[in-house]
Amino acid sequence: MFDPNATKVLAYELENRSLGLVIVETCILIVFAVAALVGNSCVLFVFYKSPDLRTVANYYLITLAVSDFAFPVITMPPLIATAATGRDMYGDQGKVIGFIGLSFALGSILTTSLIAKNRFFCIVKPQLYKKFFKKKPAICMIAGAWAIAILGNVLLSLNGKIMFVFDPGRMIYFPSSQDIYIARFFTALNQFLFVVLPLSLTVICYWKVYRSVKVHNATMATNINTGPTNRNSFSKNEIQVTKSLLALVCGSLFCWIPSASIDQISLYVSLPRSVQMITIYAASSSSAINPVIFYIFNRPFRRRFYQLFGHFLPISTVPSTSNESQTQGSNHTALTKVRRIQVKNAVPSTTKSGLFSPSLNCNIGH
């Protein structure tokens, strides 16, 4: 282990928790597990029943939903049992479960990075997007990302210096080494390749998307009477998809950055058990919050969800497509009047357009 003495202290603290702390930790994990199972089951069912939602952009969401469903099925039962009993309940399968759990985590991060790259090419490089981001290439990219995540863990396990051992601070089987310098090197390398690099590319891609849309909005505001052009234009639908996927990416960053930071810091400083548990809570919450993000920010998904599950919910009304169309028509009419007044008065619009301005009128299809 990284620090045998610290490990013994953590094991003692795990076994001698108060009844209240045992109940709280166990219940938190149960809530995350149930939320992930129910939420991702609903997500997968909605996509299964809705062929029109199975677009290339949504392939990444389906992949995350499958991963977020499988993660609690495989890893959460022994984790919850360990939290309830205060001792290692993984048995002989602990190393395998630890390997699978880490593969799920790395695969999810790489998939999140692919989402950002998809939006980058869709908004910033639309011609390349049409060429490369079709069904088969997208599936190959997703499969390649998960193959890299699994291969990285295989190479980590086969080097002979790193092994999966029970970590009482996190209550999981985690890569470890008897040599602290080897542990630091492999952990730093692993986090750079699978966390820092993908998440940095994710931030850069979405920053460029923001810049591109901001320039587009400014151009539309100052050239109202020139009409739409084909150069670097994109539809309202693509902007809405980008917005929903940005929320998903932000949720992933919120969950995985604290987890990765604690993993790295723990190699140099003996952290209290309560801090190390943030790693588990963050990973578990990542699987649980994605369905909520789908529901809140993805309007077509939300509408289809109501159609399939609305009669099970205590809700009196279901979102109506016709009502939304009427609202959009009213907004378009009002916007047209404003533009006519602006052209008549020859006063350019000075309204500051945000990243997801509802006034975009682009001509790339849905």
Automatic annotation (TrEMBL):
Gene Ontology molecular function: G protein-coupled receptor activity
One Gene Ontology CC term in the entry: membrane
Keyword Signal: no
Residue stretches making up the G-protein coupled receptors family 1 profile domain: 39-294
Protein name: Neuropeptide FF receptor 2-like
Record keyword Transmembrane present: yes
Membrane topology: Multi-pass membrane protein
Keywords assigned by UniProt, alphabetized: G-protein coupled receptor, Membrane, Receptor, Transducer, Transmembrane, Transmembrane helix
Organism lineage string: Eukaryota, Metazoa, Cnidaria, Anthozoa, Hexacorallia
UniProt-annotated location(s): Membrane
Transmembrane segments: 20-47, 59-84, 96-116, 137-160, 180-207, 245-262, 274-297
Residues in the signal sequence: none
